[in-house]
Amino acid sequence: MSHVLILGGSGHLGAALRERARAKTQVTATYASRPVSGSLPFRFEDAETLPEAAVAIGSFPLARQLEGRLETEIDEAVRVYIDRCRGARIVQLSTDAVFSGTKGCYDENDPVDPTTAYGRAQAGVDAALLKHAPDCLIVRTSFIFGWAGKRFDKRLSPLVRDGMASLSKKWPANIYRGPTEVNFLAEGIWRAVERGSTGILNIAGPRLSIYDFFVKALLELGPYEIPAPYEEMNDSVARDTSLHAARMEGELDLKAKEVWEWYRLILQRRDAC
Fold first, then answer.
1. How far apart are the first and last CA of the chain?
2. CA angle 60-266-205, nearest 5°?
3. Residues of the chain with pLDDT under 70
4. Which of 37, 177, 224, 252 would bridge with 218, disulfide CB 3.0–4.6 Å?
5. Radius of gyration (C-alpha) of the chain in whole angstroms
6. What global pTM score does this model have?
7. 243 has which bridge partners?
8. C-beta of residue 106 within 8 angstroms of C-beta of residue 242
C-alpha cells in the first residue's frame, strides 16, 4: 500500500481520508472543482491520466453522475473508470439508497431493490464493479455527518451557521437511517484497505430516526431550540435503510455505537484548535 490515490480527495470524506492517511503511505488526492495542496484534477467521465497507485479510493458519489443512464451505459462507464485506475485495487463509496427501506438493518448479502434514480444508478455501479474488478471493495454507508476539512457536513453546516433558523426545519421521526460520522468512516476505509477487505462491506452507525439524529448531533453543538418531530406521509420516501454492521465490527474492530464517541472527540479537538 505504498501509494494510494484518493479520488474526490477535496470533498468532505476525502478530507477525512487525507487527515487519517497512514504513515509511510504516499497519498495523492484529486479534485473536481476545489483543489487542495498537491491535488490533481479529476472528473469521472473525462480522460485525464491518473498516476499509478496500489489502491484507488473513490470517495466521491460516482452514482450521482450516472443517474438516469441505462444499465448497459452504467456498466460501460464503470469499466472505463476501472481502466483509468491502471490496475489499482478499487475501493468505492456506495450508499444505502440501493434499498427500498421496507426491511431495515440490511446486511451485505441482502438483494438490492432501489426505488430512486440515484439508488438504481448506485446498484448498477456496484454490480459493474463486482463484475469487472472482482478484487474491489464497495463500502456501503449511510447519512454521513460530522466535521472534516475544517467544515461540517451539508446537513449540520447550515444549522451551525444560521443558528435559530433550525426552527424552520422539519425532521421526520418515522424515517430511519444509520448516521455515520465521517472520520469514523474514513478510519474504517483505511482499516479495510490495510486488511485487504473485498466485496461489499457496510460501514455505518446504529439505526436512528432522522429526528433523533438531529437532536443528538445538535446537543453536542450548543443550545438549540428543537422543532417538534413530524411523521413523513410520502410513501416514496424510504422508511428504513439502516445497515447491519456485524462484518464491520468483526473485521475492522470498529463498533457501530462508537460513531457518537468519534463525533464528540472530533468536536473537542475542533474546539481546542
1. 31
2. 60
3. 1, 163-168, 271-273
4. 224
5. 18
6. 0.96
7. 106
8. yes
pLDDT digits (tens, 9 = 90+) for 199-255: 999 999 999 999 999 999 999 998 888 889 999 999 999 999 999 999 999 999 999
Residue 256 CA to residue 251 CA, distance in Å, equals 13
Q: What is the pLDDT of residues 46-61, one digit of tens each?
A: 888 899 999 999 999 9
Report which residue type is found at 152: F
Q: Which residues neighbour 9 within 8 Å (Cβ) at sequence distance 6 or greater?
A: 15, 17, 18, 27, 28, 29, 30, 31, 36, 39, 59
Question: What is the grid cell recorded at 139?
Answer: 463500502
Q: Name the amino acid, one letter, at 70.
A: L
What region, left, alpha or beta, does residue 86 occupy, with left being phi > 0 and alpha being psi -120 to 50 degrees? left
Q: In the chain, where does DSSP find H-type helix?
A: 12-19, 71-84, 117-132, 156-162, 182-194, 210-219, 246-252, 259-272
Residue 224's pLDDT is 82
Cβ contact 153:182 at 8 Å? yes
Cell of 96: 444505502
User: Which residues touch 14 (CB under 8 Å, ≥6 apart)?
Assistant: 6, 8, 29, 59, 60, 149
CA 157 distance to own-chain centroid? 17
Strands 151-152 and 55-58: unpaired
C-alpha cell at 207: 439505526
